[in-house]
Amino acid sequence: MAGLLDGEGSIGISKCGKSLKPLVQMSSTSKETIDEAIGVLTDVGIVGFGYSYQARDPVNHQDAHYLRIGRIGAIDKLANLMVPYSVTKRRQWTVLLTFTTSRIKRWGLDGHDRLSRGGSPSVKAHPYTPAEEECYRVLRRLNLRGAERKAMSHAP
């Protein structure tokens, strides 16, 4: 799994308004690879789900298949498993683990690997610490590609 996620995975925290959401995804043109990854995760008690997109131009492109893990408890379990074995994305896993561990320690989990909300899904009820916000910024920098990454490497 660590090799697959190093090569085909995306490890990060997305920002929607004021909410920060950890997310792990993997994409492949091989449905069998995604199905196998979901099976491996299931074997270790991590719930992930798969979905597919049909290629707009099937002559020149293959369908895309995805694995997505979005619940914070599942991501925390996966990050703990991946840190010792990941090579390319070990830093991302470590930062993501810092974020998930902090959130879970402060708010706890419900029975479905989600933060306990106490009846309120608002960010106001579960504010982010400066360290959690920094995890978002660090992961964003680590995941930059192309021209953005090159520009960032020359920034002071």
SSE order and pairing:
Layout (H helix, E strand, L loop, with lengths): L1 H7 E8 L2 E10 L2 H13 L5 E5 L10 E6 L2 H11 L7 H18 L22 H13 L3 H8 L3
Provide a descriptive summary of the structure in words:
It is a single chain. By secondary structure, the chain is of the alpha+beta class. It has a single domain, classed as Roll (Endonuclease I-creI), CATH 3.10.28. It contains 6 helices and 4 strands. The chain has a 4-stranded antiparallel sheet with strand order 1-2-4-3. α3 packs across α4 and α4 (about 90-105) runs antiparallel to α5 (about 130-140). It is globular and about 50 Å long. The N and C termini lie far apart (about 35 Å). The mean pLDDT is about 90.
Number of helices: 6
- Number of E strands: 4
Percent of residues in helices comes to: 40-55%
Biggest sheet layout: 4 strands, antiparallel
CATH architectural name: Roll
Round the mean pLDDT to the nearest integer and report it. Answer: 88
Q: How far is the N terminus from the C terminus?
A: 36 Å
Query: How many domains make up the coordinates?
Result: 1
Tell me, briefly, the overall form.
Answer: globular
Work out the strand percent: 15-25%
Strand order, main sheet: write it out: 1-2-4-3
CATH class: Alpha Beta
Do you know the CATH topology? Endonuclease I-creI
* Structural class designation: alpha+beta
Radius of gyration: 17 Å
Could you name the ranges where pLDDT drops below 50 across 5 or more consecutive residues?
none
Which superfamily, in CATH terms, is the homologous superfamily? Homing endonucleases
Following the backbone from N to C, one meets helices and strands in this order, namely HEEHEEHHHH
